[in-house]
Amino acid sequence: MSWLTEYVRPKIRGLLKREVPDNLWTNCESCGQMILVKDLRKGLNVCPHCGHHMRASVAERFAWTFDQGECTRIELPKAPVDPLTFRDRKRYTERLKDERAKSQLDESMAVAHGRIGGHDAVVAVMAFEFIAGTMGAALGEAFVAAARLAVLQKTPLIVFTASGGARMQEGLISLMQMPRTTVAVQMLREAGLPYIVVLTHPTTGGVTASFAMLGDVQISEPNALIGFAGPRVIEDTVREKLPDGFQRAEYLLEHGMIDMVVKRADLPEILGRLIGLLNHRQAAEPARPAA
């Protein structure tokens, strides 16, 4: 018995109690099914059970969008830090420091240029992982820099949106980025360059009220929440039950607010095709007379 109890039993218990790494499995946010993380990554963060499109990081967006994942990130202009010396549970400067360490990003938007479907393009990606993709002065600087780079290179600008809205720690300065980004979009229009917006879950607040809804072509990932105020806020305001799927991508498509809903795996091909078509149209149009 001693051999069984002292050697065999501990071995069996060791096999049964073998620890599983914390990052091996994850659960779908929509259906709750367990998914192997490596399978989820292979599927571009789309649930293989229900097709739910989970959030993606800035690095993933660039890797999935550009040809062979090759692109050049640009250094963005610096914005004033903590212009209001704001403090809630912690100082705004401390919050920014923590978020930068956690996300490995400087701010809530990153910009890169490269080729999509063989066509040159500038891509700006909002980082939901950085303070929920909120819009502050730094994001405004990044968006304007992306628009200027597109004009300089004479290429389309593609923006992936994902945001909780304005950044309360910057107050009115955050709201000022709405007209500022709108002016940057107009700069692209005057240069005759395509501006394509890809709306991802969620896109809300001041971002929706400004540059997110001004694209020449509006694309959305499936079932993305898109709106200004959230559904609960609207229900409390109008005191009515909202329709099923209200503010979701498919509902907006049905009501003419966006142009298409595209699965993540199909986005690079669709974007490349759109850029080719819009570039061809631009080349076919006569030059605009100088004002």
TrEMBL record:
<keyword id="KW-0963">Cytoplasm</keyword>
<dbReference type="GO" id="GO:0006633">
    <property type="term" value="P:fatty acid biosynthetic process"/>
</dbReference>
<keyword id="KW-0067">ATP-binding</keyword>
<comment type="pathway">
    <text>Lipid metabolism; malonyl-CoA biosynthesis; malonyl-CoA from acetyl-CoA: step 1/1.</text>
</comment>
<dbReference type="GO" id="GO:0008270">
    <property type="term" value="F:zinc ion binding"/>
</dbReference>
<dbReference type="GO" id="GO:0016743">
    <property type="term" value="F:carboxyl- or carbamoyltransferase activity"/>
</dbReference>
<keyword id="KW-0443">Lipid metabolism</keyword>
<keyword id="KW-0436">Ligase</keyword>
<dbReference type="InterPro" id="IPR034733">
    <property type="entry name" value="AcCoA_carboxyl_beta"/>
</dbReference>
<keyword id="KW-0808">Transferase</keyword>
<dbReference type="InterPro" id="IPR041010">
    <property type="entry name" value="Znf-ACC"/>
</dbReference>
<comment type="subunit">
    <text>Acetyl-CoA carboxylase is a heterohexamer composed of biotin carboxyl carrier protein (AccB), biotin carboxylase (AccC) and two subunits each of ACCase subunit alpha (AccA) and ACCase subunit beta (AccD).</text>
</comment>
<dbReference type="GO" id="GO:2001295">
    <property type="term" value="P:malonyl-CoA biosynthetic process"/>
</dbReference>
<dbReference type="GO" id="GO:0005524">
    <property type="term" value="F:ATP binding"/>
</dbReference>
<keyword id="KW-0479">Metal-binding</keyword>
<comment type="function">
    <text>Component of the acetyl coenzyme A carboxylase (ACC) complex. Biotin carboxylase (BC) catalyzes the carboxylation of biotin on its carrier protein (BCCP) and then the CO(2) group is transferred by the transcarboxylase to acetyl-CoA to form malonyl-CoA.</text>
</comment>
<dbReference type="InterPro" id="IPR011762">
    <property type="entry name" value="COA_CT_N"/>
</dbReference>
<comment type="similarity">
    <text>Belongs to the AccD/PCCB family.</text>
</comment>
<protein>
    <recommendedName>
        <fullName>Acetyl-coenzyme A carboxylase carboxyl transferase subunit beta</fullName>
        <ecNumber>2.1.3.15</ecNumber>
    </recommendedName>
</protein>
<feature type="binding site">
    <location>
        <position position="50"/>
    </location>
    <ligand>
        <name>Zn(2+)</name>
    </ligand>
</feature>
<feature type="zinc finger region" description="C4-type">
    <location>
        <begin position="28"/>
        <end position="50"/>
    </location>
</feature>
<dbReference type="Pfam" id="PF17848">
    <property type="entry name" value="Zn_ribbon_ACC"/>
</dbReference>
<feature type="binding site">
    <location>
        <position position="28"/>
    </location>
    <ligand>
        <name>Zn(2+)</name>
    </ligand>
</feature>
<feature type="binding site">
    <location>
        <position position="31"/>
    </location>
    <ligand>
        <name>Zn(2+)</name>
    </ligand>
</feature>
<feature type="binding site">
    <location>
        <position position="47"/>
    </location>
    <ligand>
        <name>Zn(2+)</name>
    </ligand>
</feature>
<dbReference type="GO" id="GO:0003989">
    <property type="term" value="F:acetyl-CoA carboxylase activity"/>
</dbReference>
<keyword id="KW-0862">Zinc</keyword>
<keyword id="KW-0275">Fatty acid biosynthesis</keyword>
<keyword id="KW-0863">Zinc-finger</keyword>
<feature type="domain" description="CoA carboxyltransferase N-terminal">
    <location>
        <begin position="24"/>
        <end position="291"/>
    </location>
</feature>
<keyword id="KW-0276">Fatty acid metabolism</keyword>
<dbReference type="InterPro" id="IPR000438">
    <property type="entry name" value="Acetyl_CoA_COase_Trfase_b_su"/>
</dbReference>
<dbReference type="Pfam" id="PF01039">
    <property type="entry name" value="Carboxyl_trans"/>
</dbReference>
<keyword id="KW-0547">Nucleotide-binding</keyword>
<keyword id="KW-0444">Lipid biosynthesis</keyword>
<dbReference type="InterPro" id="IPR029045">
    <property type="entry name" value="ClpP/crotonase-like_dom_sf"/>
</dbReference>
<dbReference type="GO" id="GO:0009329">
    <property type="term" value="C:acetate CoA-transferase complex"/>
</dbReference>
